[in-house]
Amino acid sequence: VRVVESGGDLVQPGASLKLNCLAYGFTFTSVSWHRQSPGKERELVASIPGTGFSPVYADSVKGRFTIYRNDAINTVHLHLDNLKPEDTAVYYCRAYGPTGSLIWGQGTQVTVSS
Question: Are strands 10-11 and 108-112 parallel, antiparallel or unpaired?
Fold first, then answer.
C-alpha cells in the first residue's frame, strides 16, 4: 500500500496548480496534505476527515486552496490558487491505510518565484 503525489512545478506568483495524490492498494478514508519548507517543520495544509465530512484548512491557505476527492480514480486533489512565494515547499500526502497505519508519500515540489 502506498500513495504517490504529482503535480508540483515552478510557477510565478498568482499562478495555480493542481496536486494529485493517488492511492495504491487501498481506498482513501481520512486524507490530508502537508507541506515542509527548508528549515521549517512540516505543517498541515488541508484535510478531509472522511467521506461526508467538511474539509479543514490551515488559516494561511483558506480561500486559496481546495482539497477534494475523486473516488472513481482513488485520488485526492489539492487545488492551489493565487500562489505566493511563501507557499514554496515540498507537499506531502498522508492517508490512513487499511490497518490504520499512517502512509506518507514521497512529496512533490512546489516553487513559487518570479
Answer: parallel
64: which 3 cell numbers?
486559496
**pLDDT-derived band of residue 50, with 50, 70 and 90 as boundaries?**
confident
Do residues 40 and 34 make contact, with C-beta atoms less than 8 angstroms apart? Answer: no
Cell 516553487, residue located? 111
Helix (H/G/I), strand (E/B), else coil: 64:
coil
Query: Which amino acid type is present at position 70?
Result: N
Rounded CA separation 35/42 (Å): 5
pLDDT in tens, 9-23: 999 999 999 999 999
Lookup: cell for 95: 492517508
